[in-house]
């Protein structure tokens, strides 16, 4: 695919697809990370004299205008991050309001369009809607890796209508993801946690063929243990997944992928802060208790095994990390990964909704090689899927 360096943007209207789907409470942005991550692209374009038109979705308004999901509240944080530069706003992302606002732009100006998903055509990847967007620009830049798994008009169809390039964040995401899984230094480890096996079937199926060590934690480890006939007490567990687990284990054996499950666990009667808890060996979980974290022995085992690996892909916490002390297992492993990364022995890439929150809590966010800003897109990439937004960029370059 092309990058910003392949476009001559001076004086051009550049449509930049960003992902400003940021957490907001009562109209105030509570985490501006996604805005910050778009800055390298925006400042590059502005320095080069482009007229920048920002396109994003916000929430899921289902094709209808919804004032509660307006992008107007993004203006203030965006202007602040741009060093006080004024950002114009258009009440609609297509039609007269957008066209007039674009026509008023001078070189080095920025315009934010209203929520793309106020039009059903966005999610339908509708040709006419994409044409209306395309009219607004001369060039197209996609900097929204985290929306690249959506075959939506601003992500897919638009890339096929204008000269297109990847923005800096998109480029950075793709480079790191490729180093981690498509072309990695071996041995490769994957840590997969989270509540349910059922939501990560394809992901596990793809990973066992690509990694040499698969560490399973979180609620989904209970499902594995249960499938092996180990009692998990009152733990969260998908009892109907035994055949699926067997399939995954068989596939792993064929591919020479070692699956590491907890050997000791932290149990308690309920999930509550600092509730009484014990460490027990797997197989000795009392009937009335729940597994809420991996035990210290397991954490140590993971730490040791990571020491033999060159690459790590991480998705999902290893325990109920939101509630102390059940964040301990995730924290120990995160610390180990950060140390190995600092020593230059491990390339570590993490991503997916809860994972980032868990790594922030563990205090290692800046100490891994790369943490993706994407949730669903990161998961689909781990599943081995081709992301429509990435494909469209590749096609447009060839
Ligand atoms: C995200 O927040 O992961 C992206 O913005 C995609 O949002 P969506 O799941 O509503 O498509």
TrEMBL record:
Give the catalysed reaction(s), semicolon-separated: (2R)-3-phosphoglycerate + ATP = (2R)-3-phospho-glyceroyl phosphate + ADP
UniProt keyword Methyltransferase present? no
For this protein, the record's Gene3D superfamilies field holds: Phosphoglycerate kinase, N-terminal domain
Q: What is its main location?
A: cytoplasm
Q: Which InterPro entries match?
A: Phosphoglycerate_kinase, Phosphoglycerate_kinase_CS, Phosphoglycerate_kinase_N, Phosphoglycerate_kinase_sf
Record's Pfam families? PGK (PF00162)
Instruction: Tell me where in or outside the cell this protein is found.
Output: Cytoplasm
EC category: transferase
| Keywords for this protein | ATP-binding, Cytoplasm, Glycolysis, Kinase, Nucleotide-binding, Transferase
The UniProt record lists the EC number as 2.7.2.3
Associated pathway: Carbohydrate degradation; glycolysis; pyruvate from D-glyceraldehyde 3-phosphate: step 2/5
Q: Which residues bind ATP?
A: 200, 322, 352-355
The molecular function terms of the Gene Ontology recorded here are: kinase activity
Q: Which residues bind substrate?
A: 19-21, 34, 57-60, 117, 150
The entry sums up its family as follows:
Belongs to the phosphoglycerate kinase family.
Q: What is annotated about its quaternary structure and interactions?
A: Monomer.
Write the protein's name. Phosphoglycerate kinase
Organism listed in the record: Fodinicurvata halophila
Q: What is the lineage of its organism?
A: Bacteria, Pseudomonadati, Pseudomonadota, Alphaproteobacteria, Rhodospirillales
């Amino acid at each position: 695919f092309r990058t910003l360096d392949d476009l001559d943007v001076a004086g051009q209207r550049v449509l930049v697809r960003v992902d400003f789907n940021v957490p907001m409470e009562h109209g105030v942005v509570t985490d501006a990370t996604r805005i910050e991550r778009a800055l390298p692209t925006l400042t590059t374009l502005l320095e080069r004299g482009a007229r920048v038109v920002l396109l994003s979705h916000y929430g899921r308004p289902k094709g209808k205008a919804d004032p509660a999901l307006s992008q107007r509240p993004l203006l203030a944080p965006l202007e602040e991050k741009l060093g006080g530069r004024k950002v114009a706003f258009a009440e609609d992302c297509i039609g007269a309001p957008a066209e007039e606002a674009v026509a008023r732009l001078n070189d080095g100006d920025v315009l934010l369009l209203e929520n793309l998903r106020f039009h059903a055509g966005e999610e339908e990847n509708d040709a006419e809607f994409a044409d209306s967007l395309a009219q607004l620009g001369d060039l197209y830049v996609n900097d929204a890796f985290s929306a690249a798994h959506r075959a939506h008009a601003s992500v897919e169809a638009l890339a096929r209508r204008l000269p297109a390039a990847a923005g800096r964040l998109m480029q950075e995401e793709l480079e790191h993801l490729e180093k981690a899984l498509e072309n990695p230094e071996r041995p490769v480890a994957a840590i997969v946690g989270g509540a349910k096996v059922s939501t990560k079937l394809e992901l596990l199926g793809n990973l066992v063929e690509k990694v040499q060590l698969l560490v399973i934690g979180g609620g989904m480890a209970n499902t594995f243990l249960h499938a092996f006939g180990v009692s998990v007490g009152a733990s969260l567990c998908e009892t109907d997944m035994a055949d699926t687990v067997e399939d995954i284990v068989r596939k792993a054996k064929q591919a020479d992928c070692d699956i590491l499950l907890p050997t000791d666990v932290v149990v308690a009667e309920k999930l509550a802060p600092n509730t009484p808890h014990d460490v027990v060996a797997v197989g000795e979980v009392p009937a009335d208790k729940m597994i809420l974290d991996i035990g210290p022995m397991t954490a140590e085992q993971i730490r040791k095994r990571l020491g033999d690996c060159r690459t790590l892909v991480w998705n999902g916490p290893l325990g109920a990390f939101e509630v102390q002390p059940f964040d301990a297992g995730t924290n120990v492993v995160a610390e180990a990964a950060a140390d190995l990364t600092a020593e230059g022995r491990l390339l570590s890439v993490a991503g997916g909704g809860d994972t980032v929150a868990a790594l922030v809590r563990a205090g290692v966010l800046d100490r891994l090689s790369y943490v993706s800003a994407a949730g669903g897109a990161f998961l689909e990439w781990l599943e081995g899927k081709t992301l429509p937004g990435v494909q469209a960029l590749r096609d447009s370059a060839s």
